[in-house]
Structure formats: C-alpha cells, structure tokens
Amino acid sequence: MIRPLFQERRTIRMIAWFLSSILFNAFPATSSGQQPSFPFSDPSKMFEQFFGAAPAADRAELEQIEIAPRDETQIGERASREYLAALRRAGTKVVTRGDDFQYLQKLIRLVQPKMEHADRYRSIRLFLADSDETDARSFPGGTLIFYRGMLDFAENEAAMIGVIGHELSHLDRGHQLYDAKRMKLMHNTFSGANGFSPDKFFHSGAMLMRSFSRPFRPEDESQADKDGAKWAYELGYDPREMAKLFLRMHERDRGAAAGLPSFLRTHPYHLDRYKALMDLYNELQTANPNPKLVIGADDFAARRF
Ligand SMILES: [Zn+2]
C-alpha cells in the first residue's frame, strides 16, 4: 500500500463505515431491539485480542502454512469486491479501460515476471479508481487497484515501475496471507486439517475490515519498497525516481500527520523510505553498475510504452 498520511483520514471514514455495516451485523440485536455497544473502541486492539500482534517469531511458524491458490483467490475476490463496492458507494468511478488503464497494464506485464512466484500470479487483475488520491493496493490472488492520483503523482515511468513492484512484492511474499495462515493454523489445531475455508475466514467480517485497515507491518512495507526498487533497477529503470516520489510525499504531507491515530501508520515515514531507497540505489550501482538508467518522463506523459 502506498499512501500519504493525510489521506488516511479518508481511510478512517471507510473503516468507520465498515465498522458499522459489518460488525454491527455480526453482533445480533438484543431483545430490546438495541444494538449492543461495540466491544472495543480501538479496532487494532480488537484484532490483537483475536489474532495476536504477529511478532516476528510467530512468522516463521506461519511461513510453513500453505494457503492453496484457489483459497487465496477466493479471499482476494471477496476483499477486492467489497473494497470496490465501497469505493463506488463513496462516489468514486472505477474503470477497466482507457489510455491510463492500458498503459498501467503494460507496465504491470513488464514487472510481473520479476516475481519469484510469477507462476502463481500469472494474471494480474487491474482496476483504476478515478480519484486524485495517491494510493495503490494489492489483494490476494493478484488484484491491483490503482488510484489515478498515484499515476499523476509518479511523474515518470521509473517511479511507476517501482510502485507497481512494491504492490507485486506484497503478493509475492504473501504479506496479505498472514491472517489467513494464522486462522488456518488455529483451525488445524482445533478441528483437524480441513477446518479452514475462505468462507470461515471472512465469517465475522473482522478479517475483511482488517484487510482494509492495517494489512501490513512497517517491515513488510520496507521489504516491498526494496523489491520494487530492485526490480526497477534490473529492468533498467532508475530507482531514485521511486525514492523521490516519497520525498515529494514527505514535502506535501509535512505537518499533516499530527493527530493521526498511530494504528493507521502502517508505512514507515516517507523520509525514511526515501533514505532507504537511496542507500539501496548506491548498493545496486556498486554491485552492478549501470550508467544508462531510464527515467521515462516523456513516455510516461504520453502514456506510451
Ligand atoms: Zn505497501
């Protein structure tokens, strides 16, 4: 997920919406007809209560759990469908055609083979949200949702390739699947190997909301940045353009982060991401020098590939 801090206020509104529509449905009305009050005021506390905080040690065990591609696809279908529906309800048009869409799709096809699990994610589904927000998201099974604002903010092909790589890296490394794996592990423990299903995964609605609110740990975001920049470099693009994108976000959002609930700050701060990517650029140039890296500003402006 690539998103400047100030836009997370919109996420808060979306979460509030999901809280009311999903969770109040999950708790039955009392006999007096009144809804019981929501048990936790902070959603992240609730998730931690239900699923634990996902410490690193716990990850090694979860890595061993397999989620079948079919189950992953079902999880992603459901989550992306609900997300798209929420966008449309909020009045945002979602398109799957046009020059921007075609151009993005070509860039995705260029980056996709860099994935370690390219076979598992052979077809990437793309949706373009007609909104000036600078956001991009990936969903299990291989669905990407890009906001048009992200495309405009990238300014050139090199930065866009990095952003696409970032989203594909989340898929490649199964970052969205840790909750499903944890749940599968629990079900295996209590009800044998066949206790898990995508339907059960979303049964309470809580997992669906979690997939919208705080899908990744900051470490996952840093890893996805690294993959995106490395793949861009291997494809001949200048990863410093991806770094500069975070610098521009930092400059734009300076001061806007004050008062933001910390549980929504899933991304390392923009400036840290900028610095990490500049360091990585130097490492890549040292290991495998390339004096002719592409920026692709003109091709980007013309949506020509
Ligand atoms: Zn991300």
Overview of the molecule:
It is a single chain. By secondary structure, the chain is mainly α. The chain has one domain. Helix content is 57%, strand content 6%. The protein has helices at residues 8-26, 43-51, 56-63, 69-89, 99-111, 148-154, 157-172, 178-191, 198-201, 206-213, 218-234, 240-253, 270-287, 297-301, and strands at residues 93-95, 125-130, 136-139, 143-147. β3 (136-139) and β4 (143-147) form a beta hairpin. α7 packs across α11 (218-234). Mean pLDDT is 80; it is low at 19-53. The structure holds zinc ion (ZN).
Set down the secondary structure blueprint.
Elements (H helix, E strand, L loop, with lengths): L7 H19 L16 H9 L4 H8 L5 H21 L3 E3 L3 H13 L13 E6 L5 E4 L3 E5 H7 L2 H16 L5 H14 L6 H4 L4 H8 L4 H17 L5 H14 L16 H18 L9 H5 L4
Parallel strand pairs: 2-4
Antiparallel strand pairs: 1-2, 3-4
Helix pairs in contact: 1-10, 7-11, 7-12, 11-13, 12-13
